[in-house]
Amino acid sequence: MSESNQPASSLTVADLQQRIQEMFGHKDQQRGVDGTFMWFMEEVGELAAALRTRDREELLGEFADVLAWLVTLANLTDIDLEEAVYHKYCVGCPRCRKPVCECQMSAKP
Amino acid sequence: MSESNQPASSLTVADLQQRIQEMFGHKDQQRGVDGTFMWFMEEVGELAAALRTRDREELLGEFADVLAWLVTLANLTDIDLEEAVYHKYCVGCPRCRKPVCECQMSAKP
């Protein structure tokens, strides 16, 4: 699936959150939540463009950016993103609780 | 950091992506990228509200939701999210390449 010649990584959500904190935390604290949310939204817009063109290199970069900024927001608000997503999504569908979701298509998971 | 009484999870980004695929992939394929992006944006809006109130339970849920929908978009576009974020963010700052970013505050990472 990956076009890189790097070996497959094994990156936990917690590791990613820690790496982002170490790399950017000093700047993120200065900027604060609101300013960081602006950057996050800028990247979301760029992701939308990449989703429209389906340019693979752009998609790779923009997905990475959106995830990194989401993790940054979690750092700034003391949210453990791995715990949050594990508890909501790794014990079955949040709504129907099934391992393969059986909710109606119109329902919000 | 976590208030849950569950043991700490060890969830790779790749595992999360696979779990979301198994749980929701059949519905996601039906809905497609554009409809999925709409759900993603709805959750981003809810995250913005939670960031405003700083209600902890809301933050946990909305961070989980935004991440899950981002992963869903990656599934629909055949993007390996772990590879994408690893290669861009786990080998130093994408711009200055330093392990602790030295870019100017105004620069876009």
What does this structure look like?
The structure is a homodimer of 109-residue chains. Chain A is mainly α. Chain A is 65% helix and 0% strand. Chain A has 3 helices and no strands. The longest helix of chain A is centred in the N-terminal third of the chain and has 41 residues. The N terminus of chain A is likely disordered. Chains A and B meet through helix 1, helix 2 and helix 3 of A and helix 1, helix 2 and helix 3 of B.
Describe this structure in a few short sentences:
In chain A, helix 1 (13-53) crosses helix 2.
Which percent range fits the helix content of chain A? 55-70%
Report the major sheet of chain A: none
**Which structural class do you get from the secondary structure elements of chain A?**
mainly alpha
Order of helices and strands of chain A: HHH
The separation of the N and C termini of chain A measures: 28 Å
| Percent of residues in β-strands of chain A | under 5%
Report the largest inter-chain contact: A-B, 66 and 66 residues
Number of helices of chain A: 3
Question: Which stretches of chain A are poorly predicted, pLDDT < 50 over at least 5 residues?
Answer: 1-7
Whole-number mean pLDDT of chain A: 91
> Looking at the structure, what is the overall shape of chain A?
globular
Number-wise, the strands of chain A total 0
Oligomer status: homodimer
Radius of gyration of chain A: 16 Å
Outline the secondary-structure elements.
The structure is a homodimer of 109-residue chains.
Chain A: H1 13-53, H2 56-76, H3 81-89
Helix pairs in contact in A: 1-2
What tags apply to this protein structure?
homodimer; 109 residues; 3 helices; 65% helix
